[in-house]
């Protein structure tokens, strides 16, 4: 379809879905970006692009500056989706994971709690609950850290 009409945003979005499902996050991001260029308010493309940014960020080391930038982009894309569709469970889920990776526990908990409440697929819901449980675990201080002031 893209060969026939290079300005058909839905074709780029469809191909991005396939790339994302195959784990080719870079290609998914590129196709979603092109779909958004062609159709500015393409909410679904923002959602998949945000998920693909998180997909690239997740395996990176916490100290990798690329991870931070990818998480920020995932948050931005998911926030756009939530501005249009505030009850989108997948946008809350992906944004919550990105916030968690950046160390913003309050926002991560907020989004993951919303994801648990809004997601209809039991597999996705269980995954959101798993991440939420992980966030709620107390973290032990290293011997070089001071406890927070009461």
Written overview of the protein:
With 150 residues, the chain is mainly alpha-helical. The protein has a single domain, classed as Serine Threonine Protein Phosphatase 5, Tetratricopeptide repeat (Alpha Horseshoe), CATH 1.25.40. Helix content is 69%, strand content 0%. The model has no long low-confidence stretch (mean pLDDT 91). It has helices at 9-21, 25-38, 43-57, 65-84, 89-101, 105-118, 122-136. The protein is globular.
Q: How do the helices and strands follow one another from N- to C-terminus?
A: HHHHHHH
Amino- and carboxy-terminal Cα gap: 61 Å
CATH class: Mainly Alpha
Number of domains: 1
Number of contiguous helices: 7
Which properties best describe this structure?
Serine Threonine Protein Phosphatase 5, Tetratricopeptide repeat, mainly alpha, 150 residues, 69% helix
Detail the topology: elements first, then pairings.
Blueprint: H1 9-21, H2 25-38, H3 43-57, H4 65-84, H5 89-101, H6 105-118, H7 122-136
Helix pairs in contact: 1-2, 1-3, 2-3, 3-4, 3-5, 4-5, 5-6, 5-7, 6-7
Summarize the structure.
This protein is mainly alpha-helical and 150 residues long. Helices cover 69% and strands 0% of the residues.
């Amino acid at each position: 379809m893209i060969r026939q009409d290079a300005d058909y945003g839905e074709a780029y979005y469809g191909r991005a879905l396939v790339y994302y499902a195959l784990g080719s996050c870079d290609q998914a991001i590129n196709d979603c970006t092109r779909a958004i260029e062609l159709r500015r308010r393409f909410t679904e493309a923002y959602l998949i692009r945000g998920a693909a940014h998180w997909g690239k960020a997740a395996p990176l080391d916490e100290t990798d500056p690329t991870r931070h930038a990818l998480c920020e982009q995932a948050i931005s894309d998911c926030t756009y989706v939530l501005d249009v569709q505030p009850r989108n469970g997948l946008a809350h889920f992906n944004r919550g994971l990105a916030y968690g990776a950046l160390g913003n526990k309050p926002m991560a908990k907020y989004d993951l709690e919303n994801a648990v409440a809004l997601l209809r697929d039991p597999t996705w819901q269980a995954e959101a609950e798993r991440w939420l449980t992980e966030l709620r675990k107390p973290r032990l201080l290293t011997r070089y850290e001071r406890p927070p002031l009461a």
